[in-house]
Amino acid sequence: MTALEPVGRTVPRNVSTRFRAPTHVHNVIERERLLDRLRADGATRLVVIHAPAGYGKTTLAVQRLRELEAGGALIAWLGLHDDDNAPHWFLSHLLGAVRRVLPGADEPLRDLAELIEQNAEDTQRYVLATLLELIGAVAAPVVLTFDDWHLIDDAAVHHALVHLLDFAPPNLSVVLTSRRRPRLPLSRLRVRGQLVEIDADALRFDLAEAREFLVELNGLTLDGDDVARLSAGTDGWVAALQLVSLSLRDCADPEALIRGFSGRHHSVGEYLTENVLDALPPEILDALLATSVCDRLCGELAGELTGRSDGQAVLEELEIRNLFLRPLDDEREWFRYHHLFADHLRRRLRRDHPDRVAALHLRASDWFARAGLAPEAVSHALAAGEVGRATDLVEQHAMSFVEHSRMVSLLGLMNRLPPTAADDRPRLLMAVAWANCLLQRTTAAQATLDLLRSALPHGDAAMEIEADVVQACIDIYNDRTDRAEDLVRRSLDRPWEHRPWVVAVGANIQTFCDFHATRHGRARERQRWARPFHDRTTGSFAAVYGRCFAGIAALSQLDVDAAEEHLTDAVELARRSAGQRSHAARLAAALLGELHYMRGRIDDAERLLEECGELGAESGVVEFMAAGYALRARVRARRGAVAEAAELLAEGAQVAERLGLVRLRAAIGAERIVQLLDAGKVRDARRVAQELPEGSCRHGGIAEAIDRLRTSSLAAVLSAECDHDGAVALLENLVGSDAARGCVRSATVLSVQLAGVQERAALRMAAERTLAGVLDRVVAERVPQIVRDGGPAVRAVLERLVVRAAAGNWPVGAAPLPEQLEALLGERAATASTASVDLTGRELEILRMIDVGRTNQQVARSLSVTVNTVKWYLKNIYGKLGAGNRTEAVSVARRHGLLA
């Protein structure tokens, strides 16, 4: 059973009431004076309606939105709650609101929602940019409406709205209601003519509106002086006038009531509300007080709170009496009170029946818990002062959140509890440790795990074993294998005694240790053994990792077909179960992109690697990050974006330094050396090589991998400095060592590098023998890019081998077919003029869109920028390519191979 699955009862269909504007409002007038102002300003970027409570902000917004909807606009409504102060909840609810109205975007928006669940902090900008792109692709105007923005004080949420406003496509506008003037760049928008601001002075009823409301709409018999006195006494405050209408309806002496009140705003509200409530039948008053504890109500919940079986009839009676109860959906299943009225009811409940408050909140908590709505169940338990019950609820659903990759939701619920609420709850601490670990919040994960160990009951072996697996998981994210195998051993020795999740993760960690200890066959066998446990976990996270690790093990042996099967399966599983842009899908896509690159499918590789990088490649074990930074930088450099490739490597180096990942630092440094040598910057390459780390700071295979990167990079620099003998000696040792240990892929790559060094040393026969010795496997596994990355020297050797194969004069073993060798040559590498073209990724993307016929406006919409920004990029492109217009720029880019 999932954390959101209703238990025992059926939740009304429209549980997402925050996504529905009020659909039926009694006793309101059309605010023509204000609507005329909004109509005159047309399609404004932002409409802000701000005033204290009870001024009709929401009513005015709804009236305007209905006009826009009648004109074909798509209206996305988000009624904000306190929980929207967390970026995770705000973005999730924003996507939920847009999903209700945006045609054809359900699947990508659902993918974005899944992505937020896995780490909102790292993905906010990407989610917003993608959302704006989806909105911009719609022909109709789209209006995002945020009701009660005053509830938001989180800086990150404010920043998200500013981003929406700054990069909004032409068809998007925002309507915002708030009790206070929002802290947004309103002056900037006003200068641009993109803001309409309506405040309390504008919202106050003038005398004519007050008369229309009291006399014509509510049918009260009042003369002009009475209306003027009430209008002046309430200062045009709409809520007070509404309360006046209720008080006067059955009043025996209306003149005395009109003369008897004074004051403004809340004091008027208190006075008039007392008059309304005191005139009600006791059972109606009791129902009002009992149901006031909830922000939203349905019939079954109202029955639970009032102890009556006719809860829906109770709500309908309250609505008929115009007691400030509004339906939230067309089906009239969910309702809420006007916030002023609800606030007063709650104060009166606490004053008159303080002993009932906690009991009512507990009833509400029970109902929401049975309905599977954990956040509201927790909130009401806390409101009842029942911290233990709230903690019970979180604990009940905690591991379900983890296994369904909803780690951020779990940590969000934990933030509502007191800091020490879970200190004596090992199972809850375990789930929190898992959540932090899988989000790669290493410090928090370790702190929680340490606390967990101190809270474990003596002799609870199962919990101790699971804690060991969490520790091992933290270790491998930190690229440590020195104790991981010992930590997971007990979970694998008696797997039937543990939850499938624990065994599946333990098997993945053991696989990671196996292939880094060059036990490649054992690593692959471990994943075959673990498949039943992966299949029995409730989420796909562990299963995706398992398939990725099986793919890495297969690639280590250069069994590329098997690796492709594993990695394709991983990508499809992740996308199917967690979403196209999920954390798991990005990890798998990075490795599949690397495989495509090896097979020469550069376009496919670039697409997958860029998908990974769009959300930041700072995730997973080092293998994933190395592909996301180093390999992606190599592809960009090959496309001509040399400066952007360097920026990407610098970013990767910063991540490696911050996370303390020495192997990632070595991989980034090695790729940087390759690119420096390609540019002829030998002295800079030597400096970087001297700064590469040594493997002594790590254990076993991790240390060997670091040293291999350092040694092969040093050999490349020595060769560039014409110390070919030194380079050959280093590489021959590496090749021999890797071949002896069965590291086929590494031995093959190093052999290609060795052949290039031998060619530059004029050792042509040796170069031909070295390269010929690995070409049969390169051809058989269809990985031509391993050879092509050898550069011009290796290409020269290969061209001679093509001739020798045709002549039947192959130097080592059986020769591949000449046509197979020619296929390895591929297209000739880019010319020097191509290499000098330095376009950024954004500039290349603009060129590609222009190449398929998109206009400047369409490009701007796709990239969520202004048309002027696109023109600015084009100006840069023309300067770099020496072109004068769009058509010529595309032509020049094609000649340079940038759009191949």
Question: What can you see in these coordinates?
Answer:
This protein is mainly alpha-helical and 900 residues long. Helices cover 67% and strands 4% of the residues. It has 46 helices and 7 strands. It has a 5-stranded parallel β-sheet, sandwiched between helices. Helix 20 packs across helix 21, helix 34 runs antiparallel to helix 35 and helix 36 runs antiparallel to helix 37. The longest helix is centred in the first third of the chain and has 31 residues. The two termini are 50 Å apart. The N terminus is likely disordered. This is HTH luxR-type domain-containing protein. Pfam families: AAA_16, GerE, WHD_MalT. Keywords: DNA-binding. InterPro entries: AAA_16, P-loop_NTPase, Sig_transdc_resp-reg_C-effctor, TPR-like_helical_dom_sf, Tscrpt_reg_LuxR_C, WalR-like, WH-like_DNA-bd_sf, WHD_MalT.
Show unreliable segments.
Answer: 1-9, 828-835
Which class do the helix and strand fractions yield?
mainly alpha
- Helicity, as a percent range: 55-70%
Q: Looking at the chains present, what oligomeric state does this protein adopt?
A: single chain
Compute the number of strand runs.
7
Count helical runs: 46
Strands of the largest sheet, in order across it? Answer: 2-3-4-1-5
**What is the radius of gyration computed over CA atoms, rounded to a whole number of angstroms?**
34 Å
Query: Mean pLDDT, rounded to whole units?
Result: 85
Biggest β-sheet description: 5 strands, parallel
Sum up the overall morphology in one term. elongated
Strand content: under 5%
N-to-C terminal Cα separation, in Å? Answer: 50 Å
InterPro entries: AAA_16, P-loop_NTPase, Sig_transdc_resp-reg_C-effctor, TPR-like_helical_dom_sf, Tscrpt_reg_LuxR_C, WalR-like, WH-like_DNA-bd_sf, WHD_MalT
Keywords: DNA-binding
Pfam family, one: AAA_16
Protein name: HTH luxR-type domain-containing protein
